[in-house]
Each structure stands twice: as structure tokens, then as C-alpha cells.
Design a protein that fits this description.
two-stranded antiparallel ribbon; HNH endonuclease; binds zinc ion; 4 strands; HNH_nuc; alpha+beta; 133 residues
Length: 133
């Protein structure tokens, strides 16, 4: 859907100007992310593997309520995954891929310069309006 200037400004303020997912303060460049995808859905199936499901267009998901303000990296990384799929994939980045695929990260980890936290993957909007309001 094409948002009016006012709708876009309101959407940006949905979480006080922060990205709904990572919590970064949004600058001039940000995306209106469909929480539930409108186009064909991508699913994270585990072990770093993404799969396209056979679901086709779902125009009923193209509503204002289904939009979240997102920074460009979050919107790009989430792509058309569901939140749970994306959450699973982010966990896999941390638990498997980071130290396996990045020599730099492995060295920094060996020297105790980076710490990998076992926390669950929580999106900013899931705690927004809790303790801080
Ligand atoms: Zn973000």
C-alpha cells in the first residue's frame, strides 16, 4: 500500500521513532515492514537454510496494522519471513554461524574481547511500553 506522508510519519512514531525490531533510532531512511508478508513467504528451516513456501500473494496483509517501522538492515534481513522464522534464524547466526563463519569473530572470542549472550532473541516492540513507560 502507498502510505500518505501523514501515515508514514505516524508509522515512524509507532515506537517513538525506533526500529520495531532492533530498537535503533530511525533516521531519514527507513522502511515500512510488513509484519506478516504480503508476497510469497520465506521460511527459515534451520541450519542456515531458507526455503520459499508455496504461499502466493496475500493482499489481506497489506494493511496499516500489519506495518512496523524498521531500519533498512532489519527490513532486508527479515525479508518476507515470519517473525518466528526470523527469530529462529537470528538465534542460529549467534549459536552456530558467527564463530563458524567469521575468523575475526573467532579470534576476538578467544581473546575474550567479544561475549556471546545466551539470551532469547527479543524484538524491540515486544518490550516497548513495558518498564520504560
Ligand atoms: Zn532494526
Amino acid at each position: 500500500m502507498k502510505l500518505s506522508k501523514i501515515q508514514r510519519a505516524e508509522l515512524k512514531q509507532k515506537f517513538n521513532g525506533h526500529c520495531a525490531y532492533c530498537g535503533e533510532l530511525l533516521g531519514d531512511k527507513w522502511h515500512a515492514d510488513h509484519i506478516e508478508a504480503v508476497k510469497r513467504e520465506i521460511e527459515y528451516v534451520g541450519n542456515g537454510v531458507l526455503r520459499t513456501t508455496n504461499e502466493m500473494l496475500r493482499p489481506h496483509n497489506d494493511t496499516l496494522e500489519n506495518l512496523n517501522p524498521a531500519c533498512v538492515p532489519c527490513n532486508t534481513n527479515k525479508s518476507s519471513m515470519s517473525l518466528e522464522s526470523w527469530r529462529h534464524m537470528l538465534g542460529h547466526y549467534r549459536d552456530v554461524q558467527l564463530l563458524r563463519d567469521s575468523t575475526h569473530a573467532r579470534h576476538l572470542h578467544r581473546f575474550g574481547l567479544i561475549e556471546i549472550k545466551p539470551n532469547p532473541v527479543v524484538f524491540f516492540f515486544e518490550t516497548f511500553g513495558g518498564a520504560c513507560q
